[in-house]
Design brief:
heterotrimer, A mainly alpha (510), B alpha/beta (185), C mainly alpha (42), A: 510 residues, mainly alpha, two-stranded antiparallel sheet, 69% helix, globular, B: Immunoglobulin-like, 7-stranded mixed β-sheet, 12 strands
Chain lengths: 510, 185, 42
């Protein structure tokens, strides 16, 4: 057993080698997906910009589907799996109980992801991320999603098994570290979410088999579109709450690593994580506010996360993280006025810059608009407009993705034992990416305010039999979206190139 | 290095934490109660009336409605221009060939019961659509779900021409779904 | 604020949090204002 561990000379952490390998492969898969999704992002961006209008409609809708799956599902979940293994082993001096199971999970996710991408790119699954019935994709598409989800579920259960082993073998003393606690909450939400996914994707897969592969046309009955929406969003939105939970955990981790800060009050922060577990899963009903069939009270109670108690949790974290940084920096002597600590904070450290921009962006751009647009009546003026796309690029891109990018600068030296290839690229990346997404997401929300729809190939309606024109102001905001998007893509490319270069040709650390 | 996290972490909150949590909690409860309150004080709320209806039955309702109140024809699109009397039931659908079922002419200041759903309309399938009514002053959006009749009790407030576009991805012809509602003063 | 400062460990963060709340309130109110521009719907 002992030879399966090595001790990190810098941090003194004990690292389980099989776990380390699994963290590596999952992290590499994540970055590859980010690269593929990023290329799709560039092409979509250049198509929605009417001045360029690059792709034809078929390729636009194909790449739109691929972009959402590669980013929202593949990049983020691969990275989270790497994070879960890290939190349950490295942070706890612990081993991964069954590395083989970890490999099975990884292979399922890779095969699933490859099937999804193949089916979408050959044009047999142009159904957008939500695949609302009766839009139908080839069965291999749904099969890919199911395989990926089974793999992810296996990885999450493996994480829980590792926590139990750590507890039994007493590899740590006292309570779980807060980061691992947060990841555990993410894990609980993930299990609930993936069960919803199974409940909707398995029947949809069976339905898609009708008339395929020699199966009779009436093999499986049609799926009620309203039930599909209700159950699908039980996967669709809570899966983003896994990201929120994992992202907040990364905020705490980065705050500690970069400034030595400690949470001011662990009770408060852990209670906030519990609020996520208890109340966040009902948020899926955000998407059904202007749907038929659901009653007003049902909508109000569910969309408000029961009583916006999960929003309270985010407001607690968004206070606790900068507060712990402020206290740590004030102890270092930056006590002048209200904000000397903020000015003298380690802005040149890409992990800190990523974390702080992620924190502010998630709150100011994604969070505020999420609660506002998710209000029962306000949904009437925001539903399915580009404002919604702007909102979730504020949360998932400016928030989650940037936080994950930030922690990479610690994962690479610790787990890959390589130095970061270029410090300059690392320093610039969060500002380009954060600034770009900030402009991009806000401009999208303004354009959406004029009624510009999401998921739309041509908002000039050039081919429509009845002409329609938007207020010319929207073209200003769309151009701004284009510029912000390009900036973000530069930042993202700096991150991907630098990470890949570090992993493969970075200077080895002994 | 041995990992150890202090077990006793339930010390009391600091002053600013207490104040912030209180403010945040009040705000969160406020945003929650705003929703029922808006139902009482304002006239823009999500409708609560809907029925299950088969796609074929709704198509019959739309066809009968269009024939009954047809006043003209839009030459370019071939869509009927339909002028229902104030206060009546209006049947309006998105079709499987990415069109709207009619061009409506409504009267400002009068309430209509606008039934929305999805039909095949000579096309292949009744998709999910998004009804988005857009003018230079506002946009209003509701989901169109095949098999469900969503009843919007609407009162157009101002005369003018309003665009009707689809904002739920409904297949390859999604971006062709443009139409209009004409409101007469 | 000045009289509170003594007991505050993180006054800067508290100010940022208040700015956040102010922006939140503005966005929320503006959206309800925009909503009130639309046709009457019930």
């Amino acid at each position: 057993m002992a030879e399966q561990f090595r001790t990190c000379p810098t941090t003194g952490l004990k690292i389980h080698k099989p776990a380390e390998t699994l963290i590596r492969v999952n992290a590499v898969a994540a970055v590859v997906c980010l690269l593929v999704g990023g290329l799709a992002a560039l092409l979509i961006l250049l198509t929605r910009w009417p001045a360029v209008h690059l792709l034809n409609e078929e390729w636009f809708y194909r790449l739109l589907t691929a972009h959402a799956l590669d980013m929202l599902i593949a990049w983020i979940i691969f990275f989270e799996v790497a994070g879960l293994y890290f939190g349950a082993t490295v942070l706890l001096n612990n081993r991964l109980p069954a590395p083989k199971v970890g490999w099975v999970a990884f292979i399922l996710m890779i095969v699933g992801g490859a099937l999804i991408n193949y089916t979408v790119l050959v044009g047999e699954a142009t159904v957008a991320f939500t695949s609302y019935v009766p839009l139908k994709a080839s069965p291999t598409y749904y099969l890919g999603v199911i395989l990926f989800a089974v793999g992810a579920l296996t990885a999450v259960l493996h994480f829980f098994a590792a926590l139990i082993v750590a507890k039994k073998e007493k590899t740590y003393e006292g309570s779980l570290p807060m980061v691992t606690f947060g990841l555990m909450c993410a894990g609980v939400i993930a299990v609930l979410t993936l069960l919803h996914g199974a409940a909707i994707y398995i029947p949809t897969f069976l339905w898609s088999l009708n008339g395929q592969w020699g199966i009779p046309n009436d093999f499986f009955p049609g799926i009620d579109p309203m039930i599909y929406r209700l159950v699908w969003w039980g996967l669709g939105h809570p899966s983003q709450q896994i990201n929120v939970c994992a992202m907040v955990s990364m905020w705490y981790l980065i705050a500690t690593l970069t400034t030595g800060a400690k949470p001011l009050n662990e009770k408060l922060c852990r209670t906030a994580f519990l609020l996520y577990v208890l109340f966040i899963n009902v948020a899926s009903e955000h998407h059904l506010l202007v749907d038929p069939a659901l009653s007003i009270w049902h909508k109000i109670v569910n969309t408000s996360y029961v009583m916006h108690l999960a929003v309270l949790a985010s407001m607690i974290h968004a206070f606790a993280v900068p507060a712990m940084v402020e206290v740590a920096l004030r102890k270092k002597g930056f006590t002048k006025g209200l904000f000397e600590w903020l000015k003298k904070a380690p802005w040149g450290n890409p992990a800190f810059a990523s974390m702080f921009i992620s924190l502010m962006g998630f709150g100011f751009v994604g969070g505020i608009t999420g609660v506002t647009f998710g209000t029962e009546q306000i949904s009437i003026i925001r539903h399915n407009t580009w404002s919604i796309t702007g909102h979730f690029h504020g949360t998932v891109v400016l928030g989650t993705t940037l936080a994950f990018m930030g922690i990479t600068y610690y994962i690479v030296p610790l787990i890959f034992r390589r130095q970061i290839f270029s410090e300059t690229m690392a320093k610039l990346s969060p500002y380009f990416f954060g600034g770009g997404v900030f402009i991009f997401a806000n401009a999208m929300m303004f354009a959406g305010g004029y009624g510009v729809p999401r998921r739309h190939w041509d908002i000039t309606f050039a081919g429509a039999s009845i002409p329609f024109q938007f207020d010319p102001t929207v073209f200003f905001f769309i151009a701004l979206t284009g510029l912000g998007g390009l900036l973000a893509i530069v930042g993202g490319a700096l991150y991907v190139l630098n990470t890949v270069a570090s992993v493969f040709i970075g200077k080895k650390i002994q | 290095m041995s990992i150890s996290v202090e077990r006793i972490w339930w010390r009391p909150l600091d002053r600013e934490e207490k104040i912030w949590v209180t403010i945040a909690l009040i705000w969160c409860l406020g945003t929650f109660f705003m929703m029922p309150v808006w139902h009482v004080i304002a006239k823009q709320n999500t409708p609560n009336e809907s029925y299950k209806v088969s796609v074929d039955d709704f198509e019959k309702l739309v066809t009968a409605f269009n024939e009954k109140y047809k006043v003209g024809m839009d030459e370019n699109s071939g869509l009927p221009i339909v002028r229902p009397p104030a206060g009546s039931d209006v049947y309006f659908a998105g079709t499987g060939i990415w069109q709207w079922s009619s061009i409506l002419e409504l009267e400002a200041g009068k309430e209509y019961r606008l039934h929305i759903s999805s039909i095949k309309g000579g096309g292949v399938e009744a998709w999910q659509h998004g009804l988005s009514i857009v003018s230079s002053k506002f946009n209003a959006n509701f989901m169109i779900i095949p098999g469900y009749d969503y009843v919007l009790k609407i009162t157009p407030t101002e005369a003018g021409e309003y665009g009707v576009i689809c904002n739920e991805f409904c297949g390859i012809g999604h971006h062709l779904m443009a139409g209009k509602i004409i409101v007469k003063g | 604020m000045s009289d509170h400062k003594e007991g505050f460990e993180a006054p800067g963060t508290f100010v940022i949090a208040l700015v956040f709340l102010a922006v939140f309130v503005v966005v929320y109110v503006v959206n309800f204002k925009l909503l009130s521009n639309i046709w009457e719907i019930r």
